[in-house]
Amino acid sequence: MQNKIRELRKQQKISQEELALAVGVTRQTITSIEVGKYIASLPLAFKIARYFGLAIEDIFEFVDEEES
What we know:
By secondary structure, this protein is mainly alpha-helical. Helix content is 57%, strand content 6%. The protein is built from 5 helices and 2 strands. Strands 1-2 form a two-stranded antiparallel ribbon. It is globular and about 35 Å long. The mean pLDDT is 94.
């Protein structure tokens, strides 16, 4: 699962801590999602998308490892 969270944060000058507080997780969770060590749950993905005013598909991209 790839995502554009880091890019979106940088564009809007938002820290990991600010995003984490806004969506109810820890900064470490945001870090883990950004680097691909953790896949956001569907509810968390919705919260992140809503925070940025985008659709989930605009932030998260599913990449099927078996098809690569």
